[in-house]
Amino acid sequence: MKSTSRSRFLRAAAAAAALPALAPLAHAQGADAYPNRSVRVVVPFAPGGALDTVARLVAGKLAERLGQPFVVENKPGAANVIGNDTVAKAAPDGYTLLFAAAPLALNTALGMKLPYDPFTDFAPISLVATIPALIVTHPGTPYRTLKDVVDAARAKPGGLNYATAGVGSMPHLLGEALRTKAGVPLAHIGYKGAAPALQDAIAGTVPIFIDAYIPTGTQVVAGKLRAIAIASEKRSPVLPDVPTTAEQGYPELVGNGFYGLLAPAKTPPAIVEKLHAAVVDAVNKTDVRERLVQMGYDVPASTPAQYTAYVKREIDRWTPVVKAAGIRPE
Question: For residue 16, how far is the Cα from the chain centroid?
Fold first, then answer.
């Protein structure tokens, strides 16, 4: 080998050998520079809803902390599948994030064929907020407790009807869990969204309505509906007089909507860690936490591992209910 060629070969070999050592440094520098442009936050719901409101609140605080715009982009449709899949297939560089809701777990529990896997196609960042379901009735009914509802369903020919925002929603699964546990006839009426179901509940057209605190809780506070149970392990500070399902003999009837932030799988861990720290800082600010609590949310601000465990627990919780009730997503 000529000396010039040999020198070139040795230099190339030395450079190649140095690459593994340089990789962590480059990785760290990349995380330090992140973000250096705007970040897209996909929300799989239409603008103006509960998830959208929380996402925009958190996105604004992330922008303040990290110095770049966090721009919310609404991609509703197909039980959140469109928005979720957009992020699952995005570049894993931290510039496309998902602000996900309960369907991240419920779609799997329902047996839907999904174009993504909720565990292998996402890098969890944090479970940001949860909000419990309420079991409510019109003030004109005699029902004040879950026992009253169960007794009435048992005594009435054909049982009682209960309404929710739709087939396969978390409130629907909660109602089916109550029906199975109590062993009484409860017939589900699935609406196309919470708004028409809420209107009929206020009018007294349906005797029982199960829905998340937003928007139903405000109607309870206004006296237009009576809350007979909150499907939570603890009472809500915004409805402290409403007993939990556990207090009424149904500790397994826990149903929460939940919102969390995720990135595409293979996003560099250092970027995930940086985003997690920013989320925790954002939601622990007094003004943000107080606003979320006043809206009815619990604010866990979890670790990525805790978020993954929460999603798995929800899938494990609702899959048997779906199978026992024979629920098929619409």
Answer: 45
